[in-house]
Amino acid sequence: MTERIGIIGGGIVGIALARALGARRAEVTVLEKETRLSQHQTGHNSGVVHAGLYYKPGSLKATLCAAGRVSIREFCEEKGLPHREVGKLVVAVDESELGALAEIERRSIENAVPDLARIDDVAALREIEPHVAGVAAVHSPHTAVVDYASITEAMAQDVRAAGGRVLLGHEVTGIRLENGTVRVTTPVSEDVFDRVIVCAGLQSDAVARLIGADPSPKILPFRGEYWELAPERTDLVRGMIYPVPDPRFPFLGVHFTRGVYDNVHVGPNAVPALAREGYKWLTISVKDTWESLRWPGAWPLAKEHWRMGVDEISGSLIKPLYFQKARRFVPELKMSDLAHKTGAGVRAQAWGSSGELLDDFAVDQVGPVTLLRNAPSPAATSSIAIADFVIEHYLTPSPR
Ligand SMILES: Cc1cc2nc3c(=O)[nH]c(=O)nc-3n(C[C@H](O)[C@H](O)[C@H](O)COP(=O)(O)OP(=O)(O)OC[C@H]3O[C@@H](n4cnc5c(N)ncnc54)[C@H](O)[C@@H]3O)c2cc1C
Questions:
Q1: Is pTM beyond 0.90 here?
Q2: Among 183, 222, 244, 349, which is least packed, fewest CB within 10 Å?
Q3: In the chain, what are the domain boundaries?
Q4: Can you give the pLDDT at residue 10?
């Protein structure tokens, strides 16, 4: 008998899974609460196809990013979608960052990042990015940019073409295990599936609670805001100029990215969002904020990282502070070049109950329900590989 599989969440991970399962002849239904696909992380990100520089060798992030970036490129080629290898330069602006740069280089080599080059002289640096300042860098020429919302839409067309259903405006409010099957309810529908996969991003812990799964890891929303470079100044950046990251928090620091449509954005930062889907400071959910504050990990987390939090929040609220950080990488940058803030995204970052950041992708299984508990960056890059991984390890041949 054909398996009936329900997928909760119409972001790139849920849709990539639906497409892969549809190709394996399952009867697939995607339930998405919004009236369009990609309304959350998938439609509000940097659009980078990561090459795998930062991730701990051997981790799911490292292995699935390596496989996923190739699959994304092939998918874009097949569908005629834009995919541009603009390249990424990770720049040490002064000598104090050389040790951390060497660690990134080591990880990149272990992760087999293709054609990675170490650059130690300023002239060579400037050949790649003529306006950059720094003492050394690593260059990843195949780091690319794409439009993840278009990719998701094209994957959804494949789902429909294979006979699958993609139901928008279907917010899952109930999941019940019943004699080995799963009954899923929304305000407008009720379905029974043989298996369900939850890919609910910012809501993944809330949906997990519907079936009584462990409330941990907890999702805390962190907004990433972008500045758009004035169109007449986009020639300051050819591809991507990135800082040497703290590998524990690779999303911190000022990033310059030339997008697939030739706009250049600067960001994202990382500030606590006051609602799970809080794209502006003034979007506040008392429920979400209260839940975050009374979660046991909140205080250890705040105690350990308050300095970083103050730094990110002040950079968000006071433009000159953010500008000063950006200008370290591109000294010709003027404050007016940061033309306006544009399309923020909110990251679903998972944390353990003692306030520790959960770094790697994480999957849980409760009977016939598979839950993606942590799918932060580079999950868009890795989406097709994540789908294959989940099918191989959690759906074949029977639920664990
Ligand atoms: C600022 C920012 C920059 C990033 N940059 C990059 C990058 O450059 N490269 C990269 O690879 N990754 C990047 N990422 C990460 C990447 O965007 C995410 O890892 C990826 O989009 C996760 O996809 P998803 O499908 O798991 O989640 P989402 O896209 O968030 O989708 C989850 C879906 O579930 C739906 N949902 C939730 N609850 C319910 C419910 N009860 N019923 C029905 N539907 C529900 C939501 O509406 C949503 O559409 C970035 C993320 C952010 C926020």
A1: yes
A2: 183
A3: 4-47+149-217+360-395, 88-141, 218-357
A4: 98
